[in-house]
Amino acid sequence: MAAKASPAPALAVEIRSVNGRFLDIAMRLPDELRGLEPALRAMLTARFKRGKIELRLAGTGSAEGAVPEPTPEQLAHLARVDAGVREHLPHARALSVHEALHWCRSAPEAQPEHAVLEAAELCVERLAVARAREGERLAAVLAERVAHLRALADAAEPLVPGAVSRMQQRFLERWKEALDKAGAAQSVAREAIEERALNEAAAYAIRIDVAEELARLRSHLDEIARLLDKGGEIGKRLEFIIQELLREANTLGSKSPSIEMTAISVDMKVAIEQLREQVQNVE
Predict the structure, then answer these.
(1) 64 pLDDT band (50/70/90 cuts)?
(2) Are residues 55 and 113 in the same domain?
(3) pLDDT in tens, 149-174
């Protein structure tokens, strides 16, 4: 985004900003205004914490087709220059009206430093307002992604008990099948078979239990929602929380007991990556 302001017709202040993780300020100043760079840089760092920002001071020139209006001082100066040249070069051609207007238009006008700083302050304020509006829209997008992740966590939670029950039944069937083939089914009590199946199912349930991961994931989502409501400089903290979210989603995928849980883990990673991309734009 960009914002413009002008302290006088001959000089324009322009600020361009693109998103970025860190604050990167670039200055494009005419030589006569280089002394203002520390003040302008301090003005920007006081208002912004992230983003690539370019501040440019440049002459605006006259509108296309407009005729400049030279000041008496400019014309008097040109007359003295013309007279001095013709004194040493009597055959030199006198300045034409077009040449006089050209030199008056191109002559730099002194800009009071306070006027330049006032225009820059106005430009910075406009940029801050524009970024605030963008931040409000971005907060709504992030809140939508957070709600989507909550829905995925709710869908994942009931899948674990069903997976444990299926694994227990599958182990029991395979255990009985193995005993039948070995001819030992009559010598092993049914209670012992079922007890072994329950032990194996319990061990399996421990390996695939994702209750802690889901609890931590919901806690991270609560913190993101709190930060969005709070506002302020939250970009770097959001980035850290999103790293934690991605870690929990990866753990869910590694513990996945079913294709349904794997699909949910993949959907979570997609949503988290979308969050990460948007958070790059948050100050």
Answers:
(1) very low
(2) yes
(3) 999 988 888 877 776 667 667 776 77
Length of the chain: 283
In CATH, what number is assigned to the domain containing residue 23?
3.30.230
- How far apart are alpha carbons 283 and 281 in whole angstroms? 7
Both 46 and 127 in one domain: the answer is yes
Q: pTM above 0.85?
A: no
105, 62 in Cβ contact below 8 A?
Answer: yes
Q: Say which residues have a Cβ less than 8 Å from residue 194's Cβ, sequence separation at least 6.
A: 172
User: Given strand 11-18, what is the order of strands in its sheet?
Assistant: 2-8, 11-18, 51-58, 23-28
Residue 205, in any domain of the structure: no
- Whether 90 and 36 map to the same domain: the answer is no
